[in-house]
C-alpha cells in the first residue's frame, strides 16, 4: 500500500487534476484553431527546431499546470519535473520520493500539423516509478486516468468507460501502433520482419498507449538508435501508469521495467508496450529472437 504525501487525499487530487486537465484541453484546442492560419502559426512557434519544436501552447500549459499544483498544494513534499523546464534549465535534482512528471504537449509536431494526435501527460511518480497518471487527448474528448490500481477514461461531460483489451493474440495477429514523425529504417525493418496483422501510424506516445488501452491496437514498439535522440521520462511516465493499471505492460526488450530519474531522463534502446501483462514477456522474447536472427539491432 502506497500512501500519498501527508495532507493529500487521492480522490481530491484526481478531482483537482480532472478540472485542470479540461482547462488544458481548452487551451490546446484554442491554439489548434489558430494554427490553421499561417500568420498566427508564425507567432505560435517559439523556436525553429524542426526536430524538437516548441509552441506557445506548450509554454502556456506548462506554466498553468505548475502554478495550479503549487497553489493548491503548498508545502507538500514533492517536486515537478517538466519537459519545458528542463529545456531552459537542465539542472533538475530531487531527493523526494514523490515527483510529478509533466509533458504539457506530447506530439508537438502533430499538434502543428493538425492531425489531432497530441496529448498532455501528467504522472505522479513514487520512488522513480509511475503511480498516478493522466493522459489528456483533447481532439478525442478523452481524459485517461489511473489511480494506481485501475484505469478509466472520462469525457468532458463526465461519461466514463473502461479499457477494452482484445487479449490472447499471437504476435502476427496483433495490430501495431507506431510513430508518425519519429520512425527510423531499423524500426521499419523490424516491423516488416515481424509481419504484423495491421500497422497504425500515429503521433504522441500518449495517443499510442491510449489506443492500446481502448482496444484499437495491441502493441507499440519504440526503437531508439545508439547515439541518436531518445524519448524521455515525460514521454512515458503517464502512459505507463494508465497501461499498467489497465492490465497491460511496458518494459525494455529484456522485460525489465523502465527506470525513471536518470541524469539525462533518457528512455533509450527498445521499449515494448502490450495489452497483456501475462503474455508480455513471451512477446518480448519472440521479438528479441527476430532481431537477433536478422541482425536488425545491436542487443
Provide an overview of this structure.
It is a single chain. This protein is an alpha+beta fold and 299 residues long. It has 2 domains: 10-161, Fructose-1,6-Bisphosphatase, Chain A, domain 1; 171-294, 3-Layer(aba) Sandwich (D-Maltodextrin-Binding Protein, domain 2). 37% of the residues lie in helices and 22% in strands. It has a 7-stranded mixed sheet, sandwiched between helices. Strands 9-8-10-12-11 form a 5-stranded mixed sheet, sandwiched between helices. A hairpin with a 2-residue loop joins strand 3 and strand 4 (129-137). The radius of gyration is 18 Å and the shape is globular. Mg(2+) binds at residues 83, 103, 105-106, 235. This is 3'(2'),5'-bisphosphate nucleotidase CysQ. Its cofactor is Mg(2+). Keywords: Magnesium, Metal-binding.
The parts where pLDDT drops under 50 for at least 5 residues are none
Specify the overall morphology: globular
CATH-defined architecture of the largest domain = 2-Layer Sandwich
Query: What is the domain total for the residues?
Result: 2
Which range best describes the helical content: under 10%, 10-25%, 25-40%, 40-55%, 55-70% or over 70%?
Answer: 25-40%
- Helix count from the secondary structure assignment: 9
CATH T-level topology of the largest domain: Fructose-1,6-Bisphosphatase, Chain A, domain 1
Radius of gyration: 18 Å
Going by helix content, strand content and strand pairing, the class is alpha+beta
Amino acid at each position: 500500500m502506497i500512501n500519498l504525501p501527508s495532507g493529500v487525499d487521492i480522490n481530491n487530487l484526481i478531482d483537482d487534476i480532472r478540472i485542470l486537465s479540461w482547462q488544458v484541453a481548452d487551451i490546446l484546442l484554442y491554439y489548434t484553431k489558430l494554427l490553421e492560419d499561417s500568420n498566427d502559426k508564425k507567432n505560435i512557434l517559439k523556436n525553429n527546431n524542426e526536430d524538437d519544436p516548441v509552441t506557445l501552447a506548450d509554454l502556456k500549459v506548462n506554466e498553468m499546470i505548475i502554478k495550479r499544483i503549487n497553489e493548491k498544494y503548498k508545502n507538500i513534499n514533492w517536486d515537478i519535473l517538466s519537459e519545458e523546464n528542463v529545456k531552459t534549465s537542465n539542472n533538475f535534482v530531487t531527493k523526494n520520493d514523490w515527483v510529478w512528471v509533466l509533458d504539457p504537449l506530447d506530439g508537438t509536431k502533430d499538434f502543428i500539423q493538425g492531425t489531432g494526435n497530441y496529448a498532455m501527460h501528467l504522472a505522479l511518480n513514487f520512488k522513480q516509478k509511475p503511480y498516478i497518471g493522466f493522459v489528456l487527448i483533447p481532439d478525442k474528448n478523452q481524459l485517461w486516468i489511473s489511480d494506481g490500481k485501475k484505469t478509466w477514461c472520462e469525457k468532458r461531460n463526465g461519461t466514463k468507460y473502461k479499457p477494452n483489451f482484445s487479449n490472447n493474440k499471437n504476435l502476427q495477429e496483433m495490430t501495431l501502433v507506431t510513430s508518425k514523425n519519429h520512425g527510423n529504417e531499423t524500426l521499419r525493418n523490424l516491423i516488416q520482419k515481424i509481419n504484423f496483422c495491421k500497422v497504425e501510424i500515429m503521433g504522441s506516445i500518449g495517443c499510442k498507449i491510449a489506443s492500446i488501452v481502448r482496444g484499437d491496437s495491441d502493441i507499440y514498439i519504440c526503437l531508439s538508435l545508439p547515439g541518436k535522440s531518445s524519448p524521455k521520462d515525460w514521454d512515458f511516465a503517464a502512459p505507463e501508469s494508465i497501461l499498467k493499471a489497465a492490465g497491460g505492460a511496458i518494459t525494455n526488450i529484456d522485460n525489465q521495467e523502465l527506470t525513471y530519474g536518470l541524469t539525462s531522463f533518457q528512455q533509450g534502446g527498445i521499449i515494448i508496450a502490450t495489452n497483456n501483462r501475462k503474455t508480455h514477456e513471451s512477446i518480448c522474447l519472440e521479438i528479441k529472437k527476430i532481431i537477433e536472427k536478422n541482425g536488425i539491432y545491436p542487443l
